[in-house]
Q: What sequence folds into this?
């Protein structure tokens, strides 16, 4: 019995060593690649089929407002990509007021935030800067949000009944950030 346990422990140790040997140079190269792309939004493993919509002037202005709020919060482009993708899913970048019977509870604004859930007053939630900063405040509380799949980061903040729906907007959100971040 001791021989089996000893062989198992040695086997695990060998795998750990081999993993360390191979991961070392790869990890070092990944850091170099990350430094080379700093300041540029990086699509983190776009998941599944992507959706896209044609934006009108109001929707484009809302995307720009999300980018401005992200910059104001001192966060990188990746945060803007996650925010815009979330808003595309929640409202198609439209600042939703009360929708009557079509409303999901008391959800309002670009992110369908709810006054009854503590996101703010209806006036605050329908202010694009305020609602974005509120979303970003939640995002900053998610450990590792910068490196996790967009849909997981968004879902952790939003707690949606459709947690995988955010992923479909990653490409369009990335394109919008690339287009408007420096404008």
A:
């Amino acid at each position: 019995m001791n021989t089996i346990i000893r062989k198992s422990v040695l086997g695990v140790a060998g795998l750990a060593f081999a993993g360390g040997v191979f991961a070392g140079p790869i990890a070092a190269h990944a850091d170099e690649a990350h430094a080379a792309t700093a300041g540029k939004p990086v699509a983190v493993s776009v998941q599944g089929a992507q959706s896209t919509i044609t934006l009108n002037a109001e929707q484009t202005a809302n995307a720009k407002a999300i980018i401005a709020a992200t910059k104001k919060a001192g966060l990188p482009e990746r945060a803007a990509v996650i925010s815009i993708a979330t808003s595309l899913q929640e409202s198609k970048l439209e600042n939703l007021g009360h929708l009557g019977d079509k409303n999901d509870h008391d959800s309002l604004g670009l992110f369908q935030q709810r006054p009854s859930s503590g996101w703010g007053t209806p006036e605050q939630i329908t202010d694009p800067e305020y609602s974005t900063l509120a979303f970003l405040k939640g995002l900053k509380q998610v450990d590792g949000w910068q490196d996790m799949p967009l849909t997981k980061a968004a879902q952790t903040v939003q707690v949606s009944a459709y947690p995988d729906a955010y992923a479909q907007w990653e490409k369009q959100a990335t394109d919008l950030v690339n287009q408007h971040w420096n404008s």
Summary: The longest helix spans residues 2-36. The two ends are 69 Å apart (CA to CA). The mean pLDDT is 80. The helical segments are 2-36, 57-72, 77-91, 122-125, 128-140, 150-158, 170-180.
